[in-house]
Amino acid sequence: MDKFYTTIATGFFAGFSSVAPGTVGTLVAIPLYLIVNLFFGSFLTFLFGIGLMVLGYFASEFYSSISEEKDPKEVVIDEIAAFYMLLYFAPLGTFSMMIKLPILFGLFRFFDIVKLYPANIAEKLEGGLGIMLDDIVAAAYALISYFIILWAL
C-alpha cells in the first residue's frame, strides 16, 4: 500500500520533477480529465474527480507522515485533483479550449501560489486535509475569476 499511496500522492511521480513540481502536477490533470471525459459521461467524470480528492486526502496524509513534512513538495495530487475539478466546472468548449485552457491554468497556478484567504488558513491545517483544501480553495478562486473574465469578454 505504501507504493500505491506514494504513486498517487506524487501524481505518478510528477512531483519528483526538479523544476516546478506543482506546475508539472497541474499539467497531469489535463490529459487525465480529457481521457476520463472522453470515455465516460459527465456524471462519472464528476465522480472520478470526487474520488481523486478523497484518494488524494489519504495519499497525501500517508506521504506527509512518512516524509515528516507538513506539505511535501513532491505531493502534487492536490494540484491534480483541484485542477481536474476546475476543468469539470469551467466551460471550455471544443474550439475555444486552446485559448481558455491556458487562462484557466494560469489563474489556478496564480491562486495556488499566492494563497489568498481562506487558502492560507486551509494550508495550516494538519495532514492531508490542509494539503488538499488549500488547492481546492485556489481552484474556486480561479473558477470565479475565469467566469468574470468570460463575462467581461
Describe this entry's structure for a reader.
There is one protein chain. The chain is 75% helix and 0% strand. The longest helix has 26 residues, at 42-67. It has 153 residues and is mainly alpha-helical. The termini are far apart. The model has no long low-confidence stretch (mean pLDDT 89).
Number of domains: 1
Computed CA radius of gyration, to the nearest angstrom = 15 Å
Through-space gap between termini = 48 Å
Determine the oligomeric state from the structure.
single chain
Q: Average the pLDDT over all residues and give the rounded result.
A: 89
Quick one: how many beta strands?
0
Please tell me what the overall shape is.
Answer: globular
Poorly predicted spans: none
Q: Structural class of the helices, strands and pairings?
A: mainly alpha
Strand content: under 5%
Helix percentage range: over 70%
Summarize the SSE layout with pairings.
Layout: H1 2-9, H2 21-39, H3 42-67, H4 77-89, H5 97-114, H6 119-122, H7 127-152
Helix pairs in contact: 1-3, 2-4, 3-4, 3-7, 4-5, 4-7, 5-7
Salient structural properties:
mainly alpha, single chain, 153 residues
Short note summarizing the structure:
Helix content is 75%, strand content 0%.
